[in-house]
Amino acid sequence: MNGPMSRRALLALTARLAKQSCIVLTLPMVLSGCERARQSAAEGALFSTLNSDEASELAAIASRILPSDETPGANEAGVIHFMDHVLGDGRDDELALLRVGLLELQAMVQQSFNTPTFASLDSSQQDELLTRIESTQFFGTMRFLTVAGMFALPEYGGSADLPGYRMIGFESRHFWQPPFGYYDADYAARGE
Q1: Cys-Cys crosslink for 76: which of 14, 19, 72, 86, Cβ 3.0 to 4.6 Å?
Q2: How far, CA to CA in Å, does 192 sit from each of 180, 185, 186, 188, 189?
Q3: Which pLDDT tens digit goes with each residue over 38-88?
Q4: Model-level pTM greater than 0.70?
Q5: How far apart are the C-alpha atoms of 190 and 192, rounded to whole Å?
Q6: CA angle, corner 66, sides to 65 and 72, nearest 5?
Q7: From the CB of residue 168, how many other CB atoms can be counted at a distance below 10 Å?
Q8: Is the pLDDT of residue 184 over 80?
Q9: What share of the chain is helix, strand, coil (3-state, %, to 5)?
């Protein structure tokens, strides 16, 4: 990505990701998941839905979807806590699908690299396996949940310290003065 992503590009990306996911989230669902994630993190609670092995593996996948580089990634944003709460919100079928997908991925890990966990692989090995499964519903759901957790409201437990907001060039302010965005700034600069 070169420079900030426009709001329209982000919305288009999110719509494409949602189509590949077995989970569809509305804004109230995202806010609810974020609030429970924030509460759990504040209380120092472990995961409420995922066991520690599942959380470790899913966090490793999320960290390859949105890796840490010059900006924080999924790990720093606490995306796995967001996933834990969204998956525990009466989504037994979706959780079962992710668990089956994770077991299938772990079988691929064992077969290809003779190790039991995805998290123990180096980044190039992880990328190789994720490329093989990128058209599956499991991966589509993981990608959607990772992006949703990265860009969720920080005050509700998503996007800790605003890495998702910085990635798209969004300034989180309580009050805005015109011009409101670069569309408006461009319009104002042309004198229209």
Answers
A1: 72
A2: 15, 10, 9, 6, 8
A3: 565 556 557 888 999 999 999 999 999 989 887 778 888 888 888 888 888
A4: no
A5: 6
A6: 160
A7: 16
A8: no
A9: 65, 0, 35
